[in-house]
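Researcher: Batch entry, complex prediction.
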Amino acid sequence: MNRQKSSSRFRFVGAAALLVLLALLVPALRDGDQRLYFLAAGVTAAMLLCMIIPARLFSLDRMILSLALYMGAVGIFSIAPADPDAALMQWLRCSVGAVTLIIGAMLIRVLTVSMLTSGITSFLGLLLLAGGLLTRDVTLPFTEAGVILLMIAFSSLLSAHGGIAAMIPGLAGTALLLLQGQTVEAIVLALAIFLLLWSSDGRIIVALAALVVFVAVFFAARQLGYLPPFSPGETHTASLSTLVSAGLFGTEGTAADASLPASSLLYGLAGRYGLVFTGLTLLLYLPLVLRGASVAGSARSRFHAVLAMGCTLLFAFRIPAGLLSAFGVLPLPISPLPLLTDSLPDLCAQMLTLGLLCGISSVNEADLAEDAHLAMLAK
Amino acid sequence: MKLMRSRFRLIALLLACVFLLTAVVCTASVLKHTGVTVSAVQQILPASESPSETSPAREETTPEPSETPDDENASEETDIQPDSEYNTFGL
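Model: Structure tokens for the complex:
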């Protein structure tokens, strides 16, 4: 059974690597650009090597790893024909991200439920989020990293001290995000914390209290003018026009509007390969998210279960938020989709999230192997 | 832990539904932006099933005023009012 599963995953990796190779080799042959040849060989080899060596060495979850690598490669080949130098930089960012993923998988073996873990991660998370308020002249792009650290603190506190104690760093993080105008991140964190409290803490009163508190925080932010006006602006219209002008199968000369967020690689992907390929690619987020939920459901310890579900929720909620704002449906600020961003700190934070999931998955597998060993000894 | 796992499954289901809903809403947004409306799709569907029955209805049907700039001229020239029977079906 396991052999069949791993064989199907290897087939997916093989197909994904072939697709990436073709997507980079065809423009390389057409343009004769050496950088595109280098990217075609380098990205495909890196994908295959990552699936063979670190996955075996650190017992990483192959499904999460392969999907994360493929989405990273999509970000590279979506901009490669138009700007090979930017694609080379994106390859370097993805390489750093892959290292961060492995670090995340290792980190989960070190993290334990303790006041030390909760204190350090809470302090660092709040510090990263408050950094934007302390230094107004310099924009610190560490929001997602701060949110992940707060989620680790929340999981640790929820496992050890219950829901009310765990809500404090989450609430403080949401308030800091609202003060900085990071509405999407604040909504994502608040929703994730509410759902985790509802699912983990059996008492409905705690979940209701959390809901009331978060609604009060958002209402206060609205009254104080920290929330942007919820009406579709010119950016949303330009974003939808750019995506629609790509057509079903893409056009060579679609240029993104200057008012759109430059860090989002969605426009490059849609412009080059069309809405059909973009939609099919974005559907791959669904198995990634469902795998994360499955890892959370299989975890033995409460800390690992809550952390895995928290990472999955943080990752998952950004996808509809990014898509609905990019397609002009929701009047939220347009944010890049996970793994399709050229912001190195955001990419590293997202890879760290997936690395934590990979680490929890490997702990689950080790637990299962130990159970099987004990059952064999009992016979 | 058992309650938590069952609620995690519920959340996973919720996430899957949110994903599919997002896909549907984004597709609808693209179709709306490109000018493809539900009434246009309804006009196509009966025609493909039974062309002999629907062809008179399609002749009498006037497109929506906001779809094309030539609609106003067309309605002034022909001066045919849409049949109330077809309006009940949104045609």
